[in-house]
Amino acid sequence: MIALTEELKEQLYRLEEDLWRAETRYNRAEMDKCFAPDFFEFGRSGRTYTRDELLRAAGETGEIPVRLPLPNFKITAIDENSVLVTYLSELTRHGTTERANRASLWTKTNDQWQLRFNQGTPCP
Fold this sequence. Notes:
This protein has helices spanning 6-18, 22-25, 28-34, 51-57; strands spanning 35-42, 48-50, 74-79, 82-93, 96-109, 112-123. By secondary structure, it is α+β, with helices and mostly antiparallel strands. It has one domain (6-123): Nuclear Transport Factor 2, Chain: A, CATH 3.10.450.50. It has a six-stranded mixed beta sheet with strand order 2-1-6-5-4-3. A hairpin with a 2-residue loop joins strand 3 (74-79) and strand 4 (82-93). The relative contact order is 0.21.
């Protein structure tokens, strides 16, 4: 089991938070490094997103109206090279806040963490 040191926890938090920051989320090169080759996502909407779809969206611009720091952030070690990150996302658009429980599976390959899977489940 991987040791969840404070340094590793901070690194994983930064990686997850970068997905919610426009300067990294809309940077195709950054997202290309971030997403594992077999990455996919079950979005809050229920839609499935592929790696290629999200990389195409990396060319967008604009603000991401998310609450930071990410609430209820937890990291669970899965094995020597995998962790499960969970948290609550809160996005406010047009006066309405959308909340979702999030789960991300990160794996370490060649000394680099990559996102393999993400799911957003709506919550009231």
